[in-house]
Amino acid sequence: MKEEIKTPALIREGVESLTASGYYTGKEDIFKDAFRALLEIKPELRLIISIDLYKKGRASLNRIAEIAGITTEEMKEILVSRGIKWLL
Questions:
Q1: CA 83 from centre of chain
Q2: For each successive 10 residues of the chain (88 residues), what is the average pLDDT?
């Protein structure tokens, strides 16, 4: 009978293999690549992140539009539709 490998164990082992082989210098580099790939696969996550940054006052309207990959005018419309006030 085959032993089932649980995903967290596989992830841990994969990270260890990739760093031990020298392909990545550390876990942080793997995380950066994985996160970049996630945002490419699910670009809608960029909008969620950008709105959260804006609501926390950590990014300007222009910056969040850039993060989301849309125009400032499109971002304004999205913020208004979600009941979020925007400032210039």
A1: 23
A2: 76 95 96 97 97 96 97 96 82
